[in-house]
Write a structure and sequence with these properties.
The complex is a heterodimer of chains A (about 90) and B (about 475). Chain A has about 90 residues and is mainly beta. Chain A is built from one helix and eight strands; from the N terminus they run ββαββββββ. Chain A has one domain: 2Fe-2S iron-sulphur cluster binding domain, sarcosine oxidase, alpha subunit, N-terminal domain (Ubiquitin-like (UB roll)). The chains are: A mainly beta (about 90), B alpha/beta (about 475).
Chain lengths: ~90, ~475
């Protein structure tokens, strides 16, 4: 199934199907991490998949600390890797 | 409709059954759930997308094959829709309840609204407050996780997380996936992945099937569960998925994402054996050690909790009534037992609300049937908890540098130090000394690991009280203040 809709993740376009979360669409694209941890700078992505663990935090349209497993992907959305606590 | 008779938090099997039963007997209901579709975890469905935006959307139809007992789900959904159309019920989906409190002799829930599909144009957030004389907490459960080497690598998920990706988004978490931990839930996850085109390299079930031998009476009372088991065994064989019992994943390997897992056999005492380990290439792995009930809102409301034999906190209740007047519960919050039990409990709890609100004596024969069914399913759940306990030697799968708390990046060495040198004796003291449990998830993920480390140290279970999370979900100030 070809997706016609895309959002921007850092410097690439990621296709998604309406109804999918940002985290699900990135996973379908084989992208597994979109955050680095504050202390050790380690990559993180989905863990619980249901909004409990907050491992999947990401910056969406400039707003940090959004749970990628819950935020629904939208056309033209700008998703950026979140570094540390996400404040620039 | 202003002010319903009952507000139900959670639209999983328990909350749905409760809401629909309450409406059928003349009560009005407000049903609040964080998800975009009703169904909870068991009947998780994709977020519905309507109109022009819907081209190519994930549909309920394409995930139907992953589901069981959909006729029951559809019947509940259509009764709920009828109730909404008739002005007898309101549903607030995409609303995360962050607290509950007393209001005018009843209960009020406060929720923040999540952004809808394409909702980046919608004003962010928005707050909902609904109050009713009766509150039903049917908030379900989440996967219980324990730390192991490399578990913080991207691609390592919970078993439920794999399932949520499949059912909610029609996405397989990887192309080569391992499923591990313990419990019958691992089987549908593996089958669902295989049906979705992933290669499942193995299901690594820590407990040997012989552990069920002691619980044959409980199994005999629940023949439907046996049939379900046989169905999954056949499906595993059909998809050539190896089921390896008495084994656990002791390490996830990789630099920036999981590339392989190491699997060890467990000895008779539940310790991973050093010999005969195998390393299997994967690009995703899901591990689940059963489920932890979500009791936060009930705890906030002041409801008493008890602990099950395996140390999990559950809301204390009788026929759905908690220790606090006007507050009820149903489903996994009363102890993990699966969807069939959640359905029965949801209906039972509705009858208790009905009796308390109206003095109306519901159908006695139906109540007897429900009580029998609940008792049988609970006996099965108790047997399952014992047959699928965490192996005693789980800690051998961790190293000193393995993170116990993923949020605050607290390694096991720090927890060991708190336990050995600072004499911490429960998870709360460990938290104060190490920050484990102080991060974004408020200890939801690391609590099981912390409590298990405490238990290993003190030689008995950590019996300290349930963690109080006054804010069930982190909320943004701007949502509370109502500013966009
Ligand atoms: C990720 C996951 C996947 C699972 N998949 C399966 C499966 O495929 N098969 C199976 O047999 N069992 C599965 N389970 C087990 C599951 O616990 C039961 O099968 C069943 O769903 C329990 O029903 P319930 O109504 O008690 O709770 P749930 O189905 O968990 O429903 C609880 C509902 O409450 C909502 N909720 C919780 N807190 C809040 C809040 N603060 N504000 C608003 N809403 C809230 C949740 O969004 C959820 O919809 C899964 C569990 C998890 C955690
Ligand atoms: S994956 Fe756990 S909160 Fe998103």
């Amino acid at each position: 199934m070809t997706a016609l809709t895309t959002f921007r993740f850092d410097d690439r376009d990621v296709p998604y199907r309406p109804g999918q979360s940002v985290g699900a669409a990135l996973t379908a694209c084989d992208i597994r991490s979109w955050r680095t941890t504050p202390r050790e700078g380690r990559p993180r992505g989905l863990f619980c998949g249901i909004g409990i663990c907050y491992d999947c935090l990401v910056t969406v349209d400039g707003m940090p600390n959004q749970r990628a497993c819950l935020v629904l992907a939208a056309d033209g959305m700008r998703v950026t890797t979140q570094e540390g606590v996400g404040e620039r | 409709m202003t002010g319903a008779d009952v507000v139900v938090v959670g639209a999983g099997p328990a909350g749905l059954a409760c809401a629909v039963t309450a409406v059928r007997h003349g009560l009005t209901v407000d049903l609040v759930d964080a998800g975009w579709a009703v169904g909870g975890q068991y009947w998780r469905h994709p977020a519905p997308v309507e109109g022009a935006d819907g081209a190519g959307a994930v549909t309920a139809g394409e995930v139907a094959h992953l589901h069981h007992d959909l006729p029951t789900y559809r019947a509940l959904c259509s009764r709920l829709e009828e109730a909404v159309a008739a002005g007898r019920a309101r549903t607030f989906l995409g609303h995360e309840v962050w607290t509950v409190g007393r209001r005018d002799g009843g209960w009020e829930v406060a929720a923040t609204q999540r952004r809808a599909a394409g909702g980046r144009h919608a004003p962010g957030g928005g707050e909902l407050r609904v109050a009713a004389p009766a509150l039903v907490v049917a908030t379900g459960a989440y996967d219980t996780s324990l730390p192991f080497r490399g578990w913080d690598l991207p691609g390592v998920m919970t078993a439920g997380g794999l399932q949520a990706l499949l059912k909610g988004h029609a996405v397989a978490a990887g192309r080569r996936v391992a499923v591990a931990g313990s419990g019958p839930f691992l089987l549908p996850v593996a089958v669902g992945l295989a049906e979705s085109g992933a290669e499942v390299v193995g299901v690594y079930e820590a407990n040997p099937p012989t552990r069920w031998g002691r619980h044959l009476p409980a199994v005999a009372r629940n023949v439907a569960k046996l049939a379900e088991g046989a169905e999954y065994a056949a499906a595993l064989a059909r998809h050539r998925i190896p089921l390896r019992t008495g084994r656990m994943v002791v390490e996830a390997l990789g630099t920036d994402r999981v590339e392989a897992v190491t699997v060890a056999r467990l000895d008779a005492t539940g310790r991973p054996r050093p010999d005969g380990r195998t390393t299997v290439a994967v690009d995703a792995v899901g591990v689940g050690w059963g489920f932890t009930p979500v009791v936060d809102l009930a705890v906030t409301a002041g409801c008493a909790t008890t602990r099950t034999d395996d140390g999990r906190h559950v809301v204390a209740e009788t026929e759905g009534r908690t220790s606090v007047e006007g507050v009820y519960t149903a489903g996994e919050t009363t102890g993990v037992g699966g969807a069939a039990l959640a359905l029965a409990e949801g209906e039972r709890t509705a009858y208790s609300v009905l009796a308390d609100r109206t003095g109306h004596d519901p159908d006695a024969a139906r109540l007897r049937h429900l009580d029998r069914r609940i008792a049988a399913l609970r006996s099965f759940a108790a047997a399952m908890a014992q047959a699928h306990a965490v192996p005693a030697g789980w800690v051998d799968a961790t190293a000193a540098e393995t993170l116990v708390c993923r949020c605050e990046e607290v390694p096991r060495a720090a927890v060991d130090h708190a336990l050995r040198d600072r004499e911490a004796r429960d998870a709360r003291q460990v938290k104060q000394l190490t920050r484990a449990g102080m991060g974004w998830c408020q200890g939801r993920v690391c609590e099981a690991g912390c409590r298990a480390l405490v238990a290993d140290r003190i030689g008995r279970p950590d019996r300290s009280a349930a963690t109080e999370r006054l804010v069930a979900m982190p909320v943004r100030m701007r949502d509370l203040l109502g500013t966009p």
